[in-house]
Amino acid sequence: MTAPRTRVLFLLPCALEEHRGNTTTATRLAEELTRRGYEITQREASSISVDETPNADLIVAFHATLSGPYAVQLAKAWRVPHLILFTGTDLNGKPTAQSKELLQQADAVVALGRSAARRARDLFPDLGNRLHTIAQGVTPIAYRPGLRLPDDAPAHDSATPIVLVPAGLRAIKDPMRAIEALTPFQREIPDLQLWFLGPVLEPACGEALAARAEELPWVHLLGAYPRADLLPFYRRANVVLSTSKSEGGAPNALLEAALIGRPVLASSIPAHREFPGPEQCFRDDRELRKRLREILDQPDQAMLAARKLQEIVRQAHSPAAESLAWDRLLRPMQAKK
């Protein structure tokens, strides 16, 4: 007789169809854990009620402060274990008394990298051995014959230098810095184009960026596309850039870019110094321009560095290793039920 599958409920802080890092991570983990024999259900945290019929043996809350409170309520009502996954902004700022209490009640807590784990221990020193570090994995964006840039993509030719910023538009990602840092560079290289690829997650940020782009014809807001359609954008980019102020682990977008073999540059924050690493990080705008010039002037060297980073991603961020670590964490928790 086949043993019943362990039912795991993923609680997300956003709608399942939104193009966010949380949904990318949850979808990847759901696919990998399903292969390992789990039954995964994904729900937006705010859409579920404790009055629903229990349908999980374990609960995973993506984002401590946004999904954690719902996980605590469901876990108590359904009498099942739950864990909290730090996904980024839940490790920013000073923790509240409520967030400390939430973390105290979790059966386990997961950080997506060493820098995130260090930050978590600084904020929540009582986590003890309940804190686990599992490196963010990445799956390749599948190639589809005939897939190309959309017809309304900005006009360019094969010699046009393109910097791609694939991220939702919100303040924490600091998209305006990309424009201001590259404006002096664009004066030297008038053909340069800056493409922002992602949804508007904070209206004020999106409006400010759109107003600035209206003044600068070399800056383009491309909007959001399904992950399956992103490959042509990454392949066309000379550089994939992150100006983020904070990340909860290796960003999905940079992992995807590196796996495709594209050069990447990232702001020098702890998560970026862990991945893609110090050699791809810039400490200020001048260093960003310097590193970008090196990539454009020495494409062979840039591609060699990109291939090295690609191999690091394949080894250290494989979905198989990620799902194995999650399996080893979840199975003992299910046994406690």
Describe the structure.
Strand 3 (58-62), helix 2 and strand 4 form a beta-alpha-beta unit. 43% of the residues lie in helices and 16% in strands. Helix 1 (21-35) crosses helix 12 and helix 5 (175-188) packs across helix 10 (285-297). The chain has two domains: 6-137 and 318-335, Glycogen Phosphorylase B (Rossmann fold, 3-Layer(aba) Sandwich), CATH 3.40.50.2000; 162-316, Rossmann fold (3-Layer(aba) Sandwich), CATH 3.40.50.2000. The protein starts with 5 loop residues before the first strand and ends with a helix. It is α/β, with parallel strands linked by helices and 337 residues long. It has a six-stranded parallel β-sheet, sandwiched between helices. The protein has helices at residues 21-35, 64-78, 97-105, 114-123, 175-188, 203-215, 231-236, 252-260, 270-274, 285-297, 299-316, 319-335; strands at 6-12, 38-44, 58-62, 82-85, 108-111, 131-133, 162-166, 193-197, 219-223, 239-242, 264-267, 281-282. The model has no long low-confidence stretch (mean pLDDT 93). The protein has twelve helices and twelve strands.
